[in-house]
Structures are given as structure tokens and as C-alpha cells.
What does this fold into?
Amino acid sequence: MFKIFAAAYYFMKKTIIAPLGGELDALFVGIHEFPTEKVILIPAAGSAKQAQNAREELAKFRIPVESEELEEHTLEAMFEAIRHIKNKENSEIAINLGCASKPMGLAATAAAFVNGIGAFDVVDDRVITLPVLKFSYYDVLSDKKMKMLKTLYSEGSFDSLENLSKKISIGPSLINYHIYGNNKNPGLKELGLVEISRGDGKVKIALSTMGKLLLKEKKKK
It folds into this structure.
């Protein structure tokens, strides 16, 4: 069944999202590998000339090109741009990470995982397809974990796990379990959704950037 799905995904005509700032050749390797209906460029800071070069080259292949401009070059802005593209496009979407700068590529990879969008990299003219993590974190977040995240989102941070425990009426042992997890169930720390710091014998906890974005994405769904 997986082989059938993979083959269908591979040959289905796609809208390619291309964050820029890296090697432009990777854009055309991806187009050669995947049937491409349209390309949506996401220019990096200072890559206006590169974006123009991409448009001119793609015109030779008669491939429609659009641009999705970022208000600022942050992880949050990349999430918003890719979410906007996903909501307005009707065709299958894939993200080409090979033509992105390292920061743009990391942000686009995180956005792909959270939104369940296919992504691929280009290494030495070879396409490497990343797994589509359709669960997008949400399937591994229990009601109690989500309650903790929402409380951290609204309160900002807690200067001790005891105070967080009192705020949400969950016992200290369960708080520790949901933060640190075990061999079978990852905790919020391992999932990269909270940040832990220690001082004066206490544990301070706050949402990570990924945790904040995850909560924002969930509100928009």
C-alpha cells in the first residue's frame, strides 16, 4: 500500500514551493524530478536578483511562477507563508529545500512537518524525499499536554514546576511525566515544544518558539 501511495505522490503534478537563498540549480533538479504545475518562490533577504533569475529561467519551461513575500525573515513568518499557500492551492504541494539558505530551509522543514506537506532536498543533483509527518505533533499531544501548552502560552512562563502544577491542577509527578516523557511516550521537552532552565534550585519552564507556533497553527485550523 505504501509503495502505491509513494508512486502516486511521485508522479502527481505538483505546486513546488521554493524558499530561496541557496543554490538555484536545485530548483531545476526538482522540476526535472517531479511533474511541476506551478512554482511559488519565497525569496530570502537580499535574494531579489536570484528570484528574478528563477522567473526568467522558468519562463523558458513555460512554468507559471508566483512569489510569496515574507514580512520578516523569521520562523513564524515562514509558517504563515506556507500555511497561506496550503490554504489557497488546490494541487498537491511539495517544498524544495535544496534552493534555500540554511535558515530558510530549517524554517521550511519545520513548517512542512507541522502542516503535513511533502518536502525534498537536493544533494549532489540527487533528490532526497523527506517523510510526510502527517501527524504534525498533534496526535501525540494528550489533553493534559495540550492544557499545559495553552497555559504556558497564556501565562508566558512559570518559575517552578510546582506553580505550573497548581495553576492547572495536575499533580507534580504527572507534570514531570508530561514534560520529560519516557521510553515509549516523548515529553514536551523531547518534542521541542518547551524550554527548561534551572536556577536557585528551581526549574523554569516556558514555551519554545516551536511550541508557540504550534499553538498558533492549531488555533487557525
